[in-house]
């Protein structure tokens, strides 16, 4: 069973930063790795479900024309709204995923520390909706903690295995260490160097 909404509300009632996103070097480093892993310097539209209190969202907003952030927690969204109040290109939405996946399509979808809260059935639905929502030339980035979490039905490694199988997209990047796993997929297999003319070859574009 997927983790219930009240789990997150309880966490945020106890702390505005329950995972110490702002203070821990682990979290700061992970954000830097996430941003460095993006194949493009700028995206037209980004969707960040599970945005939490908006620490990663602030950085993503600098890399796109429009950013949609969502979270199941009303408290988290209010914190994110305060964190992002100076950004005019951000929209926030309270949703329970996968069933309340927002309409529209995106150039980048960022799944950061989200998917292990879902059970296998819900994760598979989320993967299907994410794949359908990717624009041509789009990317999906996933980053997850690898160690077991008592409340979560899946581990980070299990999440990424299902993502790779379910998306059916070219694998563009993989970074792993003892604690975290970060991967990027794309509808096009062109590398950054190929796109900028530094390396020969053209990537194959998959149908949307």
From TrEMBL:
It comes from the Bacteria. Keywords: Methyltransferase, Transferase. Pfam families: Methyltransf_12. Residues 49-140 form the Methyltransferase type domain. Coiled coil: none annotated. One of its GO terms (molecular function) is methyltransferase activity. One of its GO terms (biological process) is methylation. InterPro entries: Methyltransf_12 (IPR013217), SAM-dependent_MTases_sf (IPR029063). This is SAM-dependent methyltransferase. It comes from Phytopseudomonas daroniae. The lineage of its organism: Bacteria, Pseudomonadati, Pseudomonadota, Gammaproteobacteria, Pseudomonadales.
